[in-house]
Write a structure and sequence with these properties.
The complex is a heterodimer of chains A (197) and B (331). Chain A is mostly helical and 197 residues long. Chain A has helices at 2-21, 25-34, 38-43, 53-66, 69-82, 87-99, 103-116, 121-133, 137-150, 155-167, 171-184, 189-195. Chain A is 77% helix and 0% strand. The longest helix of chain B has 18 residues, at 2-19. Helices cover 7% and strands 65% of the residues of chain B. The chains are: A mainly alpha (197), B mainly beta (331). The interface between A and B is medium-sized, with 19 and 16 residues.
Chain lengths: 197, 331
């Protein structure tokens, strides 16, 4: 009996490393991302060619989550080099650019997405972020108004519209827009604060 | 020859900027500044007044960096029919870096100034200025003796290079930079000036308020005995208040600057000014307002009070300066 147990233990011992080695690196990378181990999630992909478009997208995203924004930009740019039509890569690239407050570069990339996908929600919202940062209030108001027509139940777009309206001196209009935000999202703190003023 | 090359570069830049306007909003951003100032002096027979006019153009590429070019003309009336005219050309390049190991942006900048001071006076009644590396009779290279028997023209070549590295955090609550300037005044003998300018700044109130402290540590080469010392230290403190961009207010920025200590032949990296005047600057106090005229146009006005010392004559005097500019974005 003891001998059988020893053989069984040895078999399990030998099997575990092989089982680990055979784990799909992608699957492992996603698992590690879920537990916030971003460095390890990047490392398990190390044997995949750096010319692989998908691995560059993945490294771009994981580096963004990790806060390594320059690394993230580098990988998204590599992905774009492989496939210049990739909206995934361009939309991804905008995120670390926004974190580094590179508003103009982020705006250029958002506009490139909008050129081929005119009502892409993410591109518009990210572009609005740059317009707000660059204090382009008129542009932001017109932009948010146009996007609101396409996404009438979206609170983020309405908030941008209300902020721009306030900065342009249209307090009454800003209040009306914030009221709409409150109707859609009763807990929205910014809308509540403005309408209660 | 040198100045005609510089003028050609300026013309090319202006024409290129105009033709590239189409792309300005996307990749390039162009800024132009026209500026002028007038300065009056009290308590000295050395100087009566000064007038300045200048122009600067800069082109910024996305969030990566920018190139600037400027020209500046200053005319100082010394009395006794004597004048100093200064022509200054300015070139600057800066590059931004966003390293992951720092929580902010690094900026590397290099400025170069090339200029000439020309002093014209009458040999029979020279202005009572003392010789020095700045404008003053008997120090510059005597170039021409004009038709009028006793008219003399002297000149001094000025070359100055400034290198700096700056850091600002993404939250815009902290700023620091360190700069080094090397200046040469080539006259009958050469004067070399080394300057180190470390700065520290802090921002609060969502970075609508900034306080910046900048030290000027200036060292002259040993062959310049006119000041009786070769090391000068001063401290400049600047407070800036950006007004919240409320629609009713066209005033954008209010700032006050105080400088105290001893400063000569300084390079001011903030205003891109060279203080080529020979005399010792002891105190400077200024206040400025910047306001928005339209979406792409701004203007700034500054009033400045300075105290100087003519070390050879042991004479203290003061000056008042009024400066105004007009700035155009994406013209």
């Amino acid at each position: 009996m003891m001998q059988k147990l020893l053989i069984l233990s040895f078999t399990i011992y030998c099997y575990i490393p092989f089982a680990h080695a055979e784990t799909d690196p992608w699957e492992e990378s996603y698992r590690l991302e879920k537990v916030f181990q971003y460095d390890s999630a990047i490392n398990v992909l190390r044997n995949i060619s750096s010319k692989n478009e998908l691995v560059n997208l993945r490294r771009g995203w994981l580096n963004y989550l990790k806060g390594a924004h320059s690394q993230s930009i580098e990988h998204y740019k590599k992905a774009l080099k492989t496939n210049s039509q990739s909206l995934d890569a361009r939309l991804g690239l905008i995120l670390p650019l926004l974190k580094q407050q590179r508003w103009r570069e982020a705006a250029v990339n958002a506009n490139k997405v909008i050129e081929v996908a005119p009502w892409n929600y993410y591109a518009h919202v990210r572009l609005m972020k740059t317009e707000e940062a660059l204090k382009q209030w008129e542009k932001l108001f017109k932009h948010a108004d146009a996007v609101h027509l396409r996404y009438p139940s979206d609170g983020t777009v309405l908030v941008y519209m209300a902020r721009a309206s306030h900065k342009l001196g249209n307090t009454k209009q800003a209040k009306e827009i914030y009221n709409k935000v409150s109707e859609l999202f009763p807990d929205n703190f910014e809308a509540k604060a403005y309408t209660n003023k | 020859m040198f100045f005609s090359v510089i003028k050609s570069i300026a013309l090319t830049l202006i024409i290129s900027a105009a033709s590239l306007t189409i792309y300005a909003e996307e990749l390039w951003q162009f800024n132009q500044t026209f500026q002028t100032n007038i300065q009056t002096y009290n308590g000295t027979d050395d100087r009566k007044n000064a007038k300045n006019i200048g122009y600067m153009i800069s082109a910024g590429y996305l969030d990566s960096g920018s190139l600037s070019f400027g020209i500046d003309h200053t005319s100082v009336n010394l009395g006794n029919n004597a004048d100093v005219n200064e022509e200054l050309f300015f070139l600057s390049g800066e590059y931004h870096l966003y390293p992951d190991y720092l929580p902010g942006k690094l900026t590397l900048r290099f400025d170069a100034y090339f200029g000439k001071d020309t002093l014209e006076y009458s040999l029979s009644s020279p202005p009572p200025t003392t010789p020095g590396p700045g404008p003053g009779p008997g120090f510059g290279k005597i170039k021409t003796t004009r038709a009028a028997a006793d008219a003399v023209t002297e000149s001094i070549d000025i070359n100055s290079y400034y290198l700096h590295c700056a850091f600002i955090n993404y939250k815009k609550t902290y700023y620091t930079d360190i700069g080094y300037a090397y200046s040469e005044y080539n006259a009958t003998s050469d004067t070399i000036v080394h300057q180190i300018t470390p700065s520290v700044g802090m921002g609060w109130n969502n970075s609508y308020d900034w306080l910046l402290g900048r030290a000027y540590i200036i060292k002259l080469d040993e062959d310049t005995p006119i000041y009786g010392e070769d090391k000068f230290e001063s401290l400049e403190v600047k407070y800036s208040h950006w007004l919240a961009d409320e629609p009713d207010s066209s005033i954008e920025l209010i700032e006050f600057t105080l400088m105290s200590g001893k400063r000569v032949l300084a390079v001011d990296p903030y205003t891109t000014t060279i203080y080529s005047i020979t005399d010792l600057q002891k105190t400077s106090l200024s206040g400025g307002i910047q306001w928005k005229l339209s979406k792409n146009t701004k203007s700034m006005a500054v009033i400045q009070y300075d105290q100087y010392q003519n070390t050879t004559l042991a004479e203290n005097y003061e000056s008042f300066l009024f400066y105004i500019n007009l700035q155009f974005k994406n013209f």
